[in-house]
Amino acid sequence: MKVVVCVTGASGAIYAKRLLEVLKEKNVETFLIISNSAKKIIEHELKIKCNDFIKLADKYYENDDFFSPLASGSNKFDAAIVIPCSMKTLSSIANGYSSNLIVRVCDIALKEKRKLILMPREMPFNAIHLENMLKLAKLGVVIMPPIPAFYNEPKTIDDLVNFVVGRVLDILGIENDLFKRWGE
């Protein structure tokens, strides 16, 4: 399986980091794209250098690299995920405005009927946000705000993050035991 992980300028880089760690453990090939804003957020929120974050992926492409193989629909990948997804990126995807590689990859996922997961990290949502999400959901995009559950009695931030990442893996069809499931 090949997964494109896109990180945009919204709070929540911890979700992307954990997803990349688990995908590496599961031997899933990963391609990473990070927006310029996300690079700053990664360093601020995670207290690590962006280069260390990049090392979690198999391949990395700059967000302005339209010569990347990922910029072509003939390049095969199984799924793309934007984690976290800023409202700017969500709006660009919903309106077909492929001004950077992240949005281009999402456009390709849509046109080639590949799995696309967006994890919008904003609240509260306004009507424009909701209309854009509905527009994309009608096209088959999985809209998945990173909202953890509490029935599993989380004790740490890692428990909350693992729940969200575990649910992403479920959508990707990747077996995992990152969290306690309902009824277990």
From TrEMBL:
Dimethylallyl phosphate binds at residues 151, 167. It catalyses: dimethylallyl phosphate + FMNH2 = prenylated FMNH2 + phosphate. FMN binds at residues 9-11, 35, 86-89, 121. Residues 1-171 form the Flavoprotein domain. InterPro entries: Flavin_trans-like, Flavoprotein, UbiX-like. One of its GO terms (molecular function) is carboxy-lyase activity. Its EC number is 2.5.1.129. Keywords: Flavoprotein, FMN, Lyase, Prenyltransferase, Transferase. The keyword Ribosomal protein does not apply. NCBIfam families: PRK06029.1 (NF004685), ubiX_pad (TIGR00421). Flavin prenyltransferase that catalyzes the synthesis of the prenylated FMN cofactor (prenyl-FMN) for 4-hydroxy-3-polyprenylbenzoic acid decarboxylase UbiD. The prenyltransferase is metal-independent and links a dimethylallyl moiety from dimethylallyl monophosphate (DMAP) to the flavin N5 and C6 atoms of FMN. This is Flavin prenyltransferase UbiX.
